[in-house]
Amino acid sequence: MNNTKKRPLRLALTKGRLEKDTVALLEKIGYDCKALHEKGRKLILPVGDSIEAVLAKAADVITYVENGVCDMGVVGKDTIMEAGGKFFEVADLGFGRCRFALAGKKGGDFYQGYNVKTIATKYPNVARAFFEKKGMDVDIVKIEGSVELAPLLNLSDAIVDIVETGGTLKENGLEVYEEISPLSARLIVNRVSIKLRQHEIEALVKSIEANL
Fold it and tell me: Does the reported pTM lie above 0.85?
């Protein structure tokens, strides 16, 4: 149950770069983030008197918000697109910008021919949805590590992956064939919390948007 009245707003943060950018944003708004700077191994920390930060992996941020143990969360659009979930996406925070792209060997003719293509990716749901929209049948191979290896080893015809600068692709003789979707950090809210704590959440969202 969403018993949220007796505690501070609970905000799940994706650990790492998005965490640092979110802390900087909260400090810009005026929140005391000293505990987050000196967190040690702690995973639940106060942000001023009205917010409690929960540090988690990206996919878990969605799980905690969806199930109501956290009221809000900061997570990349890539995780949202891959994992889905029942929550409200209320703001584009603007940092963590990158993009999903289809990429492969430089000079490749990916869209030529009628054979079923093999796609290597860490994001099978994103890849499947992309090719379904094109009406293309593809075989998808899930890769956990450096997905750029797959076309180099002839395991796949192309990859679907996150691209920031394109430097890794270039250094490995790969190139972007097509951009799929822009990505950035998003603020998500639990569907029950937004009703029970509407004024608090709306006030925080307005403060965030005013300081982006």
Answer: yes
